[in-house]
Amino acid sequence: MTPDAGHEARYRAIAADLAAKIRSGHYAPGEALPPQRELSASYGVTLMTLRQALRELSDERLIVQQPGRGTFVAPPHLAYQLDSLRSLVDDLRKQGHDVRTAVAGRAVRRAPARIAAELRLRPGDSALRLERVREFAGRPAVHQVSWVRRPVADQIRDRDFTAVSLYTALADAGVTVAQASEVVRPGLLDPAAARHLNEPQGSPVLVSTRITYTLDATPVVSDHATILGSMMEIRTERAATGLSLTWGATIP
Amino acid sequence: MTPDAGHEARYRAIAADLAAKIRSGHYAPGEALPPQRELSASYGVTLMTLRQALRELSDERLIVQQPGRGTFVAPPHLAYQLDSLRSLVDDLRKQGHDVRTAVAGRAVRRAPARIAAELRLRPGDSALRLERVREFAGRPAVHQVSWVRRPVADQIRDRDFTAVSLYTALADAGVTVAQASEVVRPGLLDPAAARHLNEPQGSPVLVSTRITYTLDATPVVSDHATILGSMMEIRTERAATGLSLTWGATIP
DNA sequence: CACACTCACTGTTATAGAACTCATTGAAGA
DNA sequence: TCTTCAATGAGTTCTATAACAGTGAGTGTG
C-alpha cells in the first residue's frame, strides 16, 4: 500500500479532517467521538492507523481518551493557556491571594502608530483601547493597556471587564485565539503607570509586550503590561520532560 | 497476547531498557542504535511494538530518527536545554553575534549563608565560586556568579571556562543534570555588577536565580546572573503545541 | 430492596507481513 | 575521470487479526 496518493500520510489526513471537524464545531466540546472501530471503518482504515491519527489529536490536546468510556473532545481551554496574565491571576488565586481587576479606561479611538503596526492596521484606523489595573493582596501590581482590533472590538466593548477576562470575552464573541508571542524586558516605572501602581517612579518593573493571533494569523490584541518587580517574578522549571513558565507572587 | 507479565506494557519496558542503556552510556551520544528490525528481533517483538518504544524515547528527546539513515542517540543537550544562559549564547550566535566569556574569579571558599541554604550545605562548608562575564557584540551583557557543590567542584575547578561551559564541564565530570528551576526578577544594576558590565548604576536589569539539580535531586549549582536590560529580553511563544522560552538580543 | 455478577462496549496493546520513501554506496557507462 | 543509476539498508506507513483491560448498565439472586 502506498502511504497515500498525494504525498501526505493517511493518518495525518485523518487527523487533519477530525481536527477540522472539532474546530468547526461538528463535534462539540465534551462530546464523545464515535468509537474507534466505527471511525476506522468509516475512514476505510485499520484500527492501528486510526489510532495513530487520534494520537496526533491527543498530542495537540484536542481530544481526551478514556479507556472503557470513549474519546471526548477536549474543552476549549486554549485561550486559558495563552493568556499569561490570566494564568498569573489563576496562579495567585491558587496561592490564596485575592486578585481584582479595575478598568481604568475604555474607548474606541485612533490607534497610535506603534499599535497600528503591531495589529497591521492602516494609519488612522481606530481600535478599542482597554486600560486595566490588576490588584492582589490589596495592592495594585500590574498596569495593562490592551488594544483590540475591529470589528471584534465592537462586539466586546460593552462587557464588564472587572468580572470577565478579555480572552473570555473574545471567546464569547467567537474569536478563537491560536497563538501569542510575548517579549518581557526589565524597565523602570514611568510616571503614567506610577500613578496607577502607587509605587515610586524608577522602581524596577517588568514590561511585557504581547501580541495575540487568531487561527488565520491575524493579530487581534496588542498588550502592554507593566508589572511591579516588588510583587511579581517569572518562574521557570526545566526538566527532561519540558518547560514550564509561570508568574509568581513575591508577597512577603 | 497479554501486554506483559508484570502489569507493564511491553513497549514501555523496552523503552525503559533502551533509555537506561543510553543514560548509562552503553549507547554513546551520536552513536547509531541497531536497526529497528534488528532491535525488534533481539527483543522478540514486532517492528510496530519496537517503534512504539522508540516513539517514547523520541518524545523524551533521547533519540533522533532519520529516515534512510538510522536512529541516533541524541547529543546530551540536556544541559544545553537546561542552561538558559548557555542557550542565550547559542541564540545569539545563531543571530550572528560573537559571544565571549571572561572568567573574573574562581576560588574554593566558604559559601555564604544564602548559597549554603540553596545548595543544602552545612554552615561553614566550602564550595567553588565561579564569576564570569558574558560579552556579545563587543559589550559585556551578563554578569554571573555560580557556586558549585563539592566534591564535583574539585573535579572541574581547573577547566578553562572561557572555552567550556560549566554544564559541559559537569557532564565531563560525570554529573548528569536532571532539572533546573529559575526565578527571574527585574532589578536595578548594583555597584558590584556595574563595574563588570560597564553601564551606569541603577540601569534596568533582569536578575536570574537558578538552581540546578542532579538525578537524585541534589542541588549542584547555584547561579545568580545579572542581565542588562538594554541588551537582553525574554521572548515566549505560546501555541496549541506548547510553549517556548528564549533569550533574545536587543542590539539596535 | 441491596448486592454481586455478567456481558457488551470502549480504548489499549500486541501479533505478522508487506510496500513505501529516503540516503548512501558502489559499479557500470560515457 | 566523471556521471549516472541500480542496489542496499534504513526509517515509515499501512493492512489484517487477535486478545487484553477498564466501564457501566442490566440481570439475577439473596
Automatic annotation (TrEMBL), chains A, B:
On the tree of life, the source organism's domain of life is: Bacteria
Looking up InterPro entries in the UniProt record yields: Bact_HTH_transcr_reg, Chorismate_lyase_/UTRA_dom_sf, Tscrpt_reg_HTH_GntR, UTRA, WH-like_DNA-bd_sf, WH_DNA-bd_sf
All residue ranges annotated as the HTH gntR-type domain in the record? 8-76
Citing just one GO molecular function, the answer is:
DNA-binding transcription factor activity
Any one Gene Ontology BP term: negative regulation of DNA-templated transcription
What CDD domains does UniProt report for this protein, alphabetically? WHTH_GntR
A Pfam family cross-referenced in the UniProt record is UTRA
SMART domains for the chain: HTH_GNTR, UTRA
Name the keywords, alphabetized.
DNA-binding, Transcription, Transcription regulation
- As given in the record, the signal peptide range reads none
- The name under which this protein is listed is GntR family transcriptional regulator
This chain's source organism reads Planotetraspora kaengkrachanensis
